[in-house]
């Protein structure tokens, strides 16, 4: 997932107050807890305990925190990029060992799917899906963490190591509460979220049918290094943008830079296209269904006095509705061809196939998530996002088929100002793993409650 928009205002959530409410205060700089000889699962809840079962889950989750920190930091030391994550996959399989789960690994990708069969009676068999992504990013970590990446030019800069650990935590919590679980839970550990469509590939391998029937709901959390520690935010409807990459090549006629009238220079024409794209976005698309088009790559030529044959540029395009995306694709093609035609050139404009759809939260599921956070951790820990965020997510593929919701979880370390802290994807990004017990409790509680609602 791309960096969080810093302009997002999280009113009513104070970093200090939220930090104080956290159950465990392990900081990134602190030494890790020593590994126990054997990891004990949390104690089962006494029958009838807790009206919402929230408090016991939160307490059990707090007891898991040292284990989750160890797992997260081990993952952080050995980040892997893309769809093949053998070490991360192995760590997850090992962490799930001993739990009453049906565990399967992917064929084409390094995924792990766990299915927990609940023991409580239910009128019909139902399931809930929980997702955690496992992949890292191709950049060199530049912070001073004592558990920083040991792999060159690879870093868990988007916090997916926390997601993986929180999902393991949820699996442990729900395993301990299995007899209260009125259905099945699918744990989806996915590779390749960062632009590799890992979710789409897991769907193709059947993750949505892993429990034997389609889940009634799906949930995911994503940490943010620029959000107040321990704060949860989500939104009804569009939560994250759709992401497309537009690749444009303008074909002109090269020649000597001193005699441009004997050539057909593609550079000014490609430049004209870049500015025309901006005009198209602001003049032809509603501000209430926005489009972002950023040209982040422009390549042409080899020398100042040589006119090249071609100019090439690429843009990232973010939209928040299928209608806007479809219209952008149609209009951009017409616009670029029109400009090229008028200059006696040709143009190739293609959208790469690795696009991500808009991540759309089901309104009812988003409200259910908000209520679950409030029940577990207090209403002051939750806020509604006024606007969608600009990053994109392939959890959109799951939410296109299963109603559900994704929420952001603030993980800005104490001592850093969320307004200025390095964002997700920065080589300096830091995520405070003190939030993991609370995140694991929310995931587990969502499944537990949703199967009886
Ligand atoms: Zn990311
Ligand atoms: Zn991410």
UniProtKB/TrEMBL annotation:
PROSITE patterns recorded: TAT
Superkingdom field: Bacteria
This protein's name: M20 family metallopeptidase
The species this protein was found in: Pseudonocardia eucalypti
Gene3D superfamilies with a match to the protein in the record: 3.30.70.360, Zn peptidases
Segments forming domain Peptidase M20 dimerisation: 245-337
CDD domains assigned to the protein according to its UniProt record, in alphabetical order: M20_Acy1 (cd03886)
A Pfam family per the record: Peptidase_M20
């Amino acid at each position: 997932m791309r960096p969080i928009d810093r302009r997002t205002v999280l009113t009513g959530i104070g970093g200090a107050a939220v930090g104080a409410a956290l159950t465990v205060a392990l900081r990134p700089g602190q030494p890790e807890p020593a590994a126990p000889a054997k990891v004990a699962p949390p104690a089962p809840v006494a029958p009838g305990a807790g009206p919402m079962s929230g408090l016991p889950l939160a307490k059990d989750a707090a007891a898991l925190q040292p284990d989750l920190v160890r797992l997260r930091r081990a993952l952080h030391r050995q980040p892997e990029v893309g769809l093949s994550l053998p070490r991360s996959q192995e760590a997850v399989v090992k962490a799930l060992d001993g739990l009453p789960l049906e565990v399967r690994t992917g064929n084409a990708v390094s995924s792990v799917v766990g299915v927990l069969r609940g023991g409580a009676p239910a009128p019909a068999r139902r399931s809930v899906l929980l997702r955690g992504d496992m992949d890292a990013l191709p950049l060199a970590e530049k912070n001073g963490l004592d558990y920083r990446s040991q792999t060159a030019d690879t870093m868990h800069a988007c916090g997916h190591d926390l997601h993986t650990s929180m999902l393991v935590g949820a699996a442990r919590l729900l395993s301990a509460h299995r007899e209260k679980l009125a259905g099945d839970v699918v744990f989806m550990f996915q590779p390749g979220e960062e632009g590799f469509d890992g979710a789409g590939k897991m769907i193709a391998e059947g993750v949505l049918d892993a429990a034997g029937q389609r889940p009634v709901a799906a949930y995911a959390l994503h940490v943010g290094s620029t959000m107040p520690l321990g704060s949860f935010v989500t939104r009804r409807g569009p939560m994250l943008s759709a992401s497309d990459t537009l690749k444009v090549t303008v074909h002109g006629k090269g020649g000597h830079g001193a005699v441009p009238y004997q050539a057909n220079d593609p550079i000014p024409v490609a430049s004209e296209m870049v500015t025309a794209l901006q005009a198209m976005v602001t003049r032809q698309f509603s501000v209430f269904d926005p489009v972002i088009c950023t040209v982040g790559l422009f390549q042409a030529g080899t020398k100042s006095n040589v006119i090249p044959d071609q100019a090439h540029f690429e843009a990232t395009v973010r939209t928040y509705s299928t209608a806007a995306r479809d219209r952008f694709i149609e209009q951009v093609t017409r616009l670029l061809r029109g400009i090229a035609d008028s200059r006696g050139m040709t143009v190739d404009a293609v959208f790469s196939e690795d696009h991500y759809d808009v991540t759309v939260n089901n309104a009812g599921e988003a409200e259910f998530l908000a209520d679950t956070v409030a029940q577990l951790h207090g209403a002051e820990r939750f806020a509604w996002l006024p606007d969608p965020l600009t990053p994109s997510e392939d959890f959109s593929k799951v939410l296109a088929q299963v109603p559900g919701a994704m929420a952001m979880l603030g993980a800005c370390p104490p001592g850093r100002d969320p307004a200025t802290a390095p964002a997700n994807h920065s080589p300096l990004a830091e995520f405070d793993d003190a939030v993991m017990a609370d995140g694991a409790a929310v995931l587990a509680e969502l499944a537990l409650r949703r199967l009886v609602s």
